Amino acid sequence: MPSEKIGEYEVECSAVELAGEQGWVAHLAIYGHSNNPMHRNNVFPEQRVSLDAIFPNKEEAEAEAHRVALSMLESSRGGVREH
After folding, report:
1. What tens digit of pLDDT does each residue of 35-58 get?
2. Could you give the 3-state DSSP secondary structure of residue 64?
3. What is the pTM of this model?
4. Which superkingdom is the protein from (predicted)?
5. Which is deepest, 26, 30, 75, 82, by most CB within 10 Å?
């Protein structure tokens, strides 16, 4: 899934296939505004989200990462809180 601009944040939702077993996990990174166009301000480093969930395909894992991003950004309303 390509990065998406949500408000003042750039959100990257991705999926990682599990090694040695069937399934995908959701990954998320959130970047904030930076004055340097060659640098992104990483406010939520790329990491796995929804730790207990394994998804049957890439699309469902990416959709879960997007849902988590929206939830984080809605609940913070002024900053990103750890999820």
Report:
1. 887 888 999 999 999 999 999 999
2. helix
3. 0.84
4. Bacteria
5. 26
